[in-house]
Amino acid sequence: MVITIDLTDEEEKALLYVAYDVQEWAENAVRNRIRQAADQICTEAIEDETDTILTAQQKQQLRTALDNAGINLVTVSKIPVNIKRAIVAAANITLLKDKE
C-alpha cells in the first residue's frame, strides 16, 4: 500500500521545524501507530478468555510456539515481530471502517 499526503508549503515548513525529513517522519509515525495497534491486537488475543480474536486452539498453538522459541510471555513487546504478524493475520477482528 502506498500512502500519499499533500502538504501546503506552510504545513511542510511547520513540520520541517520539528522534523529533519518530512517523508521519514511520516513513515515513522505510521509504522509506530501500526506497532501500537498490533500490540493491542496481540494483548487482546492472548488475554481474552473468549474466542473473540483467536480460538482456543490458536491460543494454544501460540503458547506452544512461544515456548518452543524459549520466550517467556511477560509482555507483548517480547513477542517476535514474525509471531505478532501471524497473530494479526489470524485475528478475527472487526476493522474500524466496518464498525460504522
Write a brief caption for the model:
The protein has 100 residues and is mostly helical. It has helices at 9-18, 22-47, 56-68, 81-90.
Could you characterize the architecture of this molecule?
This protein has one domain. It is 59% helix and 0% strand. It contains four helices and no strands. The chain has helices spanning 9-18, 22-47, 56-68, 81-90. The longest helix has 26 residues, at 22-47. It is elongated and about 55 Å long.
Number of β-strand runs: 0
Q: What is the approximate shape?
A: elongated
Taken as a percent bin, the fraction of beta residues is under 5%
Mean pLDDT: 86
Biggest beta-sheet profile: none
Terminal-residue CA separation: 23 Å
Q: Domains counted in the coordinates: how many? A: 1
How many helices in DSSP terms?
Answer: 4
Alpha-beta content class: mainly alpha
Helix content: 55-70%
Q: C-alpha Rg, in Å?
A: 18 Å
Give structural attributes.
0% strand; 100 residues; mainly alpha; 4 helices
Write the layout of secondary structure elements.
Blueprint (H helix, E strand, L loop, with lengths): L8 H10 L3 H26 L8 H13 L12 H10 L10
